[in-house]
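User: My instructor asked us to take a sequence, write out its structure as tokens, and then describe one feature of it. I'm not sure where to start. Here is the sequence I was given:
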Amino acid sequence: MDDVSLAKVRSEVTRLAILQAAAQVFKISGFESTTMDAIRDQAQVSKATLYGYFPSKEELFVESLLYEAEAEFDRNLLFNPREIPELKSHLVALAQNMIRFAYSPNGLAIRRLLIASAKNPELGQRCYEHGPQKGKAEMRALLQQAINEGQLKPHDPTISECHLRALIEAEFVDILHFGLNLPLTEEWIQAASQRAISSFLTLYAS
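Assistant: Let's start with the prediction itself. The structure tokens for your sequence are:
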């Protein structure tokens, strides 16, 4: 490995260390109470290094939480394959993946931080644009592909995407809203995913 390549590797290692440290501190202290000094100490980097990678706490907040989410969520289920050989099984796998991430302890902590960020409208908008908005667009594209292939009735995927998300989360959403300590078993995840996708396809399957 030449010097340039080695420098790039070291730079990425430092960047990831900062993101991991920031996510940890934000989840413990929240956005408002977290300081860049606390993140610097957690990441064990200099102040100049920290600000060299992330000029503001707002930027670091968005990037660190998205990094955490990307590490757990399998986005390959949203990236459109050339064909969707069996739509129901594909959507069930997507639903299971969404539930496992969204209702894991880490996923819940991230989502609650994102919800709390809406107190700052500008920060909330940035979080939405860099995370949920992209996920919604990818899901709409997946549904549009299924429409094009004749697996779903012709309809507006902007609407069906909302219905699909709501059905997937329907049995679990009180955990997020009320902090219920319910055991998230694999049996429940699989059964709930089957029920959600069956209900969705009852409405939209061709």
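For the description part of your assignment, you could build on this observation: The chain is about 75% helix and 0% strand. Try explaining in your own words what that tells you about the chain.
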